[in-house]
Amino acid sequence: MVGLLAASGLIPVGVLSATRALVDGLVHGLGSGSLSPALLAPLAGLALLFALDFLLVPWVTYLQGVVNERLTARVHLLLMEKAAGLPDLTPFEDAGFYDELQVLRDQAPYQPLNLLVFFGNAFRGGIAVAGVLLLLLTLAPIFPLLLLLATLPQALLTFRLQKGVWEAVLFSAPEARRMRYYAEVLLNPEAAKEVRLFGLLPFFRGRYLEAFGRLHQELRRARGRQALGASGLVFVSALATAAALYLGLRQALLGSGGLGNLVLLLQSVGSLQQNLYGLVQDGGMLYESLLYFERLEGFLARPSAFAPSSAGRSAQRFEEIRFENVGFSYPDGRRALEGISIKLRRGERLALVGENGAGKTTLVKLLLRFYDPSEGRILVDGVDLRELDLEAWRRLVAAVFQDFGRYALTLRENIALADLERQSDPGRLEDAARAGGASELLRRLGPEALLSKAFGGTDLSLGEWQRIALSRAFFRQAEVLVLDEPTASLDPKEEAHLYQRFAELAQGKTVLLITHRLASVQMADRILVLREGRLVEEGSHQALLHRNGLYAELWRLQAEGYRAN
Ligand SMILES: Nc1ncnc2c1ncn2[C@@H]1O[C@H](COP(=O)(O)OP(=O)(O)OP(=O)(O)O)[C@@H](O)[C@H]1O
User: Fold this and answer.
1) CA 196, 199, 202, 205: dihedral to nearest 10 degrees?
2) Domain 2-300: which CATH class?
3) Interface confidence (ipTM) of the complex
4) What residue spans define the domains of the chain?
């Protein structure tokens, strides 16, 4: 590609010198009535050069296309590997991280192409400019100097201002992100029902326009500065061009240079201006692309807050997990847990109960080491979780999260994601589906049913998706089973079924069950009651009822609802 670009950069120089030879030959043979060989050679040369120009363009485009596709895929892969490869969730708490990721992701489809196209153009333009200047040097050194004066300051200024526009784009990243979000609310199916019911189109449209107004103003200012600055230099440019043309004309009139030289000079002014200006434009865009790749590099080099995990001890099984005076604040300062000390023995079934925002999910997030505690420590058989091999530790755990994933994959894949090494084990798939209450679904749709409307498959109800999520957790035969509101979307029959099967399903596993349905916690060996991040009660169902505290109050409230009639 570089070779082809260099060749095409030399074409304008070839055209200029062939034109000069043509004009000189013409002057020489004027009146002879025949085509002399001195005319034929430049003529053929010109024809060849034009043809070559045509020939090179599609090949350069072809190569740029091929390299672009690969480069774009590579950039996306690097972003995916970085974002999903970070072991913790802390980066997602940081608006700067989001911004950075969004800018990098939004521009990933075109910055690689920009890099290639603008590098190509700038490279070709650079060669053309250098060639034309060298050619002018054969007339007299003053000519390239004057023409440079006519064009270079303008070019440099434009380049400097282009940087301003790019910085404005970066600066306005949060606005651009908001615009994108408002548009997505209206364009994506998730909010389609509420958008229609509540008539939200004008609201989100208005929000979009507000964000657009701010972004647009910023960009317009930067662009205005660019245009204004460039017009300021127009006099310098005109004077230098006039001087060069005057000198050339005088030389021609004095007979010290042929007519060919004058034509060369006239054409060079146009060619230089065009090429140099193009060079600046392309150089500016190239600079922008390079800034993108610089940011990408910075993002990829972003260190993780976590120490490398694979260096740690690899837990295969455990006897006891202990929270020692654990406290945790989210990176935005929100206090979520305070002074938690609990012990969880192998095979024990623990229920976590408490009002919304009490810290139940946060506790699980710490157990899975999505975050590290702000105070205290979590010990697995006496070893700090931070010193364990993180991957090995997580392999011991299966979980159904409140916001479980719904993947646009087949039913089988949706379940087998929890243990991809066993994904082609049909017996295991059936067992997991049975455990999670998805047997009937599996039978009705078949394992290869695609669960996505967007890709031409089918969709499920929320409760059916929850059964899939449960089956996924059971597919991974883990030591620890975390269930965060696992029955929130299940019908009463399936919920009852699940808890009837619970003893069998949880056999040999250590279970952490978070639920607001207190009827289901009775099967736990022990119940922990959290309130505002603190552990306020602990014991069996009976013991807690007896105690007549928060648990008993919540229990009575729920029981009354059922007893009312
Ligand atoms: N990413 C976050 N950043 C800041 N604060 C958060 C974040 N996630 C949760 N919180 C806050 O931490 C506290 C505990 O939240 P958590 O999700 O653990 O509650 P929970 O007991 O699971 O509640 P629920 O019953 O509603 O699921 C809440 O006050 C919540 O607002």
Assistant:
1) -30
2) mainly alpha
3) 0.96
4) 2-300, 406-477
